[in-house]
Amino acid sequence: MRSWRASGTIRWRRSRGSPSCSRPGCGRSVRPRRRRAMDDIEAIKQLTARYNRAFDSVDVPGYLATWTEDGFFERSNAGRSFQGHAELEELLTTFGVDGRHVTSDFIIEVDGDRATSSSHLIYLDVDAGFKVAIFGIYADELVRTDEGWKFSARRLQVHAPKGT
């Protein structure tokens, strides 16, 4: 915690969780759990960024590294789903649009070694001057593995403009 002096310099004060705290626990038992949860949330956001960049650059090993072996992907307007690394590779290498993923507005809930994530997707078509090709909402299921967080399922609900 900091406080301001009239001169504008910063004077640091000890917070309640500092070593001089005389209360039992001083809130220390909650902080490591909160820190771990925040670390998990950041790791899941980083996983999503690696997924986006690998997909956009058609980096097969990088893309598959974001998935569990039996990973499942479904897009509401695709007419089919993809399961397992072979089908996920097919999805990546046959996708018909050269685009860029932009994901935002994450809502992530972690429960031990499992998590769910929801985020908005804006998919920009490079060949059309970065026009929005897809807008939708991801609903993700994730698992913690020895290599870190991975997607076990991603479902993309595509939202079409009204009148289309």
From TrEMBL:
InterPro entries: NTF2-like_dom_sf, SnoaL-like. Residues 37-155 form the SnoaL-like domain. Residues 17-29 have a biased composition (Low complexity). Residues 13-32 are annotated as: Disordered. This is Nuclear transport factor 2 family protein. SUPFAM superfamilies: NTF2-like. The lineage of its organism: Bacteria, Bacillati, Actinomycetota, Thermoleophilia, Solirubrobacterales.
